[in-house]
Design brief:
The C terminus is likely disordered. The radius of gyration is 34 Å and the shape is globular. The protein has about 1000 residues and is of the alpha/beta class. The protein has a 6-stranded mixed beta sheet. About 35% of the residues lie in helices and about 20% in strands.
Amino acid sequence: MKKKTETKEYESIVVKGAREHNLQNIDIEIPKKKMIVFTGVSGSGKSSLAFDTIFAEGQRRYIESLSSYARQFLGQMEKPKFETIRGLSPTISIEQKSASRNPRSTVGTITEIYDYLRVLFARIGVQYCIKCGEKVGRGNAESMVNQILELPDKTKFLILAPIMENRKGEHRELFEDLRKDGFGRVRINGIVHELSDVQSLERHKKHTIEVVVDRLVMSHSDTFHKRLTDSVETSLKKGDGQIVIHVLDREDIKMSESRTCCGIAYPELDPPLFSFNSPLGMCPECNGIGSVLSMDPMKIIPDHELSIREGAIVPWKNYFNDKPGRYGGSASGSWGREQVNALEKEFGLNLDTAWKDLPKAQKDLCLNGSGKEMIVNWNSAKIKGEIKTTYEGLLGTLMRRYMQTQSENAKKHYSKFMSTSTCKVCNGARLKPEVLNVKIGDFSILDITKLSIKDCFDFFSGLELTGNRKIIAEELLKEIVDRLRFLINVGLNYLSLDRSGPTLSGGESQRIRLASQVGSELTGVLYILDEPSIGLHQRDNERLLNSLCHLRDIGNTLIIVEHDEETMERADWIVDIGPGAGLLGGRIVAEGTPKEIIKNKDSLTGQYLSGKKKIEQPDQRRVPKDFGNKWIEIKGATENNLAGIDVKIPLGLMVAVSGVSGAGKSTLINQILYPALSKKFHSGTKQVGAHKTITGLSALDKIINIDQKAIGRTPRSNPATYTKLFDHIRDLFSMIPEAKERGYKKGRFSFNVKGGRCENCRGDGYIKVEMHFLADVFVPCEVCGGKRFNESTLEIKYKGHSISDILNLSVRQAMEIFEKHPKIKTVLDTLMQVGLGYIKLGQAATTLSGGEAQRIKLARELSKRNTGKTLYILDEPTTGLHFEDIKMLLNVLQKIVDGGNTVIVIEHNLDVIKTADWVIDLGPEGGDEGGRVVAEGSPEKVAKSKKSYTAKYLKDHLIKPVAKKSPKKAGKKKAKAKTVRKKVTANAK
């Protein structure tokens, strides 16, 4: 008998020879069932090891285990560059991606809580009448007949029996059965057909089928009454208790035996009825989106101080000058102008009074038109004379033209006057009225989704049911409450279930996915997370870490790419990758427990954790009165959860906006301040959040919002093209003597236009090969070898480098080559200043992280000429940044402010907050309990606040009093500042 061999589980994940991207052939052993943090400076190779090697291989192995049939739908991943990986567990990646771009997506649908709510309301909800408010009861044939008899005499109508609603299929057997039963007509999808003409329907489309029981003309004779009663009873029998009365040119009358009140037949309660994605439940006007795209009077008439003749109405602006019209001739003699003349003559429209002073009737005439006819004098090549017509109004005219035009340019032009507005039929509820009148307790499904997750949790936790309703709801309530609890545990208690998916930040959407994993209670899984602390206040971070520790404690392995100090302190193991970025990184600098990392002299992270290195406070702070005492004041801000607050923002300073997650920071700055300033200075079209007034804008001349959106959607976009650096480089190459001799112009060195690029790959450098049921394969172009340009172009070289070689250089390498070219060097300098010396000039935009994209945008703005009156807005610029990177970023931001500009930073990072000149702290809580100014002033003043959660953590980071900084003292010698810092460091030790 053979002895049974024991198999042991690998206690660690062993990676050997990892060479993906900049990884330098590294070997690493990662303990399992622990919480491991990968850290290091930006571009050191953390994500390359965690996501592009370990996760990519785990996913590839899973996909390869499936059948070839399944792989054709999932694709096949390319194998990462490594020698061996052992001990790999099933792998789940939770990255920072926007939850969904679909406007129908909400927090409720993403977490699937809304699916459980639909079933709950369908099974234990109580239907109330939309007219009388009473519970909906049963109906009978007699009451239905009496309602039908209310129709006017001689009204022609059909009595229909509903057979099927929104069901796919050919339905051959159904039509055959109806013919056997003696029926002659049927209504399919709203159109009546002879049953003999219908054989089958389109199989893959949804169909609504109703059989025509009788065709009648209203009369009040006894014979008619008897026939009507018989037909109604037949319809109820055939339609399972439901009946439809169809009258020409009016809405169908639906009635039901089971759910009828005030003459209204209510639908059976089914889960699809409560879905705003289903035709059964969605509002028919907005199709369940809750908003409609319509012409916006505020965009059509942006300046109410002007008169119509002065150009108050933008689409009419050209009617009052002698510029050529769109189709030749003068715009002042166009059909549009002749219509305006007719309005002036017929209705007395005043063209010379400011729009704000015009009577309401005249404003309404311009926007909505009039049904009264007017005479327009028209003189053109084809038509001359007087034309009698009505005026439909600007809103109707512009919308009609937008809908009818086939020209993309015309659509773009008309879309400038459009905004998304709340649907007037459902008022943003998305659902039909009869759905919203189904309630549990006093709450409809809409009321539930509007609650914050915390309040929603409290409602369902305290919901008391009895009898059968309690038995039916038991499992549903358990699932709903558990999912809500997980969302609270990851710091999302302030969100509501109706919050739109596209409005969620990357950190919020990541934590939603994390909550679903916490709830799944899987074990033996390898989770890889990308900075889960993003967007979290220090107070909320603790709950997140408790959730992560729970995942570890039930037997999972967590690899977290993170820079957060608290996360590293609670980790079981830290891997510090570096020492630098790009080619200078890709090595394991140190690994071990947090205590071992702190003691390791080679670890830059360890030096910051131990306090040997730190981000210093400024020696002096700027104060408003020394910098012109100029302020932007936002009054009466009420957008989202802002509680009608007044906020003053000093100009010429570095301002940090802080507060717990969901306090209203992004609403105040990104939804009110930025759109308002963009509209004033750059004719922006983004909708401005609700507020009363914004004053103090005259001290500014430009607004720049540096967000983390990608710098391009295609691999053709790269740092060199985005920062305009490539333009200067192409100028230089066109000036090379050999290029001049050949007659090569600037365009010759572009991979986007014909001439110098490789035409085989059209400048991409690679060819896409379709692999039928496998994933598409990208192979280097055989003609240019991936260099993007043709041979003739590549023969032109600068310091031994072709134009293709230049794109493959890192910013640091390019600095050495172009040190004597001021225009090129200026852009490269700014990229170095923001800590991007490691990225390649031609690196595809699609491979850049959000933090890298944000810093490239910052570098682009820094390389431009400084006006000194610019307001910069940055939303969490520390995303993806190590302590050392934050230090470099803060130096850049301080230089911007020294140039006379204003910087507003939305941040939770205490190192950024402590270096700001002014802090505006919102709160005290998130959601409905937030939206107020808790504290404002210098960091020292805010740190003393007893109401602020930020103060609790900030006071431990402020290590010394800071003097006030005035313009005269700002230029003092650096030597003195250095001495002060040394003394402070010595005192701290």
